[in-house]
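@here heads up, posting the sequence + SMILES for the copper (II) ion run so it's all in one place. Ping me if the SMILES looks off, I pulled it from an old spreadsheet.
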Amino acid sequence: MKRSNAVRVIFWLATIFAIAFLVRAESGDRRASVPQARSAAPAPIRIVDQNGQPAVSGVPSATSTIVDVMVGPGGTFTFTPNPVNISVGDTVRWTWSSSGHSVTSGLPCAADSQYCSPNDMSCFPGSLSNSGTVYQHTFTRSGTYSYFCLAHCSIGMTGVVNVSGGCTPSGWSAGPSLPTVLIRAVGVYFPADGNFYTVGGRTSDLAGSDFQHVLRYSPTSNTWTQMGVTLPDNFMNNMACGVLAVSGTPSIYCVGGSFATGTTATPRVFSYNPVTDTSTTLTGDDWPGAMGTILPGGFTVFNNKLYILGGFNINVGSTNQIWQFDPTAAVGAKWLQRTNTPVGIMYAPTCTINGIIYVGGASDFQGGLVVDTTNSFSFNPVANTIGSITAIPRATGETRGLTFNGKMLVMGGGRVAPNPSNEVDAYDPGTNMWTVNTPVPAFVTARRNFPTDTDGTTRIWLAGGYDSTGVPTALMEIFCNAGGASPTPTATATATATATATPTATPGGRTTPTPRPRPTPAPRP
Ligand SMILES: [Cu+2]
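bot reply: prediction finished. Complex structure tokens:
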């Protein structure tokens, strides 16, 4: 009896332990299975973006996908495939096929600290990884994201991720008005935070109306905010601005400018950091092109350098110099003069596509008046040469050129009747042809001298400017390419240096064929 009792007790104890263990194991399985179920569901993955901010600005793609890119396959200094076109919420997964490479975000070859292998930390100076490494990044905002290899950027190891979609409603719609009417400010999209900024400008044509402030439009909250900074001086009108990175920190750099009723121009360069909301005036590197009375002409960024094409010698005439600003060069050596523009240009729509700078339309100064022209040409900043392109189909000026899905958009502008305009002209470098109000239709309120910019694939913002009656406005308009139709950038892309002993590829890496030669459009005098 005793024995059988003992056996019974042991049996029951064993049974209880077994049940307890099995329950634990099962609940452990359940726990483990939860994240799997979550990661299989498309929506909740994107909780924060690469800056740790809530990624609520976008409509996620219906099904999140992972796109694979090989790093240095077959001993080449390439990212393959390149470029990759994805939708908001998709992930790019890079796998190292060979050793000694990095994936580092930023305009070639300057890190902007948005994302980098192996873990998004210390993107500058950064580190290299070896064969077999896997690094992935989920893109939560639309835009064009350049990246490069730290070790091999100079021989062309660069890549681009085009992220589209994530906005609503489709087409042009009214945005919130600026907190003030504003003219002659510069619009700048800041990729690191996804916001659209206006820098400087003035609120009327009267003396003292210069606006020494920065306004921020947040697509997430759909609101304008005046930043705390006070910009360094009142030469706030008609500046040239662009986003450049130094030591892994991107800032908005602005050059030159004038003040309301003034006839002098400053050579001053300052940078504005939206993260710290502070501005810094450069010393030792004033813009040599200002010469006391000259405003910057067209402007654009290529390879982390700001280019200024032409200018306005105030109430005298247009100018034809091209200047290159490199924020990473030594003090006193940041400016370099390049070849001249083929004709004097000012207030000129200008942008960069695949390493070539394009101008489509420009103002000129004739008979004591600012007039519009169809002057159009290209400039190759690596070869330092001018090229011909088909002339824009209408005269315009006093507006911007924007790079949008591989095309140049010229946004309204001009002052000679029937201008100012609301027309959007699109130049395709692949065909050397212009289209009118397609793929981006005309906006609503015709205007000139207004801040505008784009994320490159999906959104365009514009606000303020002089309306068709010459009166400053505060109205904002937003374009949304909601379809997220995968952008198809022209397939010229990056030069791919092969892994020979001593690579001697072109400095700057990217080479792009110049557009097919066409007869030069007759420049308007
Ligand atoms: Cu490399």
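MO: The longest helix spans residues 2-40.
MO: One more: The first strand starts at residue 66 and ends at 71.
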